[in-house]
Write a structure and sequence with these properties.
four-stranded antiparallel sheet, alpha+beta, single chain, 210 residues, 3 helices
Length: 210
């Protein structure tokens, strides 16, 4: 029995153990057992190269740039303020003329000029700016049946149809007969009193005044 036990122990000692791993590292690569022999090696795609950001250097501003920009801004602001003020003033002036002279612009005057008048009945004058054309109507002694029309000047220009026209009676040539003056802005048109009617002053009559 002793012999048999020794034989069994010898067999067990000589039998290869399945759990033992080879400790010999000098094994050819083709004899190694791999888990996935057909797997391809992992390839990592190369990362694209990004161009380096361009370095920009700030150009120093000219020392005269800021004062020039400020001057231009002030000039533009002054111009806009002037245009706004002119527009507002013009609008207010037009509204004031509407209240005083109406549309079309009309002005009336009573005066003694020696044309069929009485003490209590002066002549009546109406001047109207009707679409740029200035017309004067005289009612001698206030009598409508004796009305006379005097053609005045024509006003050229945009918006001149809203220009007020005024009348004044004054002896211009010193003959003791009141003459008729038509005032348009800063200008005057003189109509000479002949004693019975009015006519536009001639060049000779104007030269005689000098």
């Amino acid at each position: 029995m002793v012999v048999n036990s020794n034989l069994n122990d010898q067999r067990e000692s000589t039998a290869p153990s399945p759990r033992r791993r080879a400790t010999n590292w000098n094994v050819p690569l083709d004899e190694l057992e791999l888990d996935h022999p057909s797997a391809e090696p992992l390839r990592i795609p190369p990362r694209p190269l990004r161009p380096a950001p361009a370095v920009t250097r700030a150009t120093p501003a000219s020392p005269l740039a800021h004062p020039f920009a400020i001057a231009v801004g002030v000039a533009i602001a002054v111009l806009l303020l002037y245009l706004l003020t002119s527009t507002v003033v013009g609008w207010l002036g037009t509204k004031a003329d509407d209240l005083q002279y109406g549309r079309p612009r009309t002005f009336q005057l009573d005066a003694y000029v020696g044309h069929d008048e009485t003490v209590s009945n002066p002549s009546h004058f109406i001047v109207i700016n009707l679409d740029h054309q200035v017309d004067i109507i005289e009612l001698p002694g206030g009598d409508v049946s004796k009305a006379r029309a005097i053609s005045g000047p024509y006003l050229f220009g945009n918006g001149e149809n809203l220009t007020p026209v005024r009348l004044e009676v004054r002896d211009v040539n010193g003959d003791n007969k009141p003459d008729l003056l038509v005032e348009i802005k800063s200008e005057q048109v003189v109509y000479i009193n002949s004693g019975t009617d009015f006519h536009l002053m001639t060049a000779a009559e104007r030269a005689a005044l000098k």
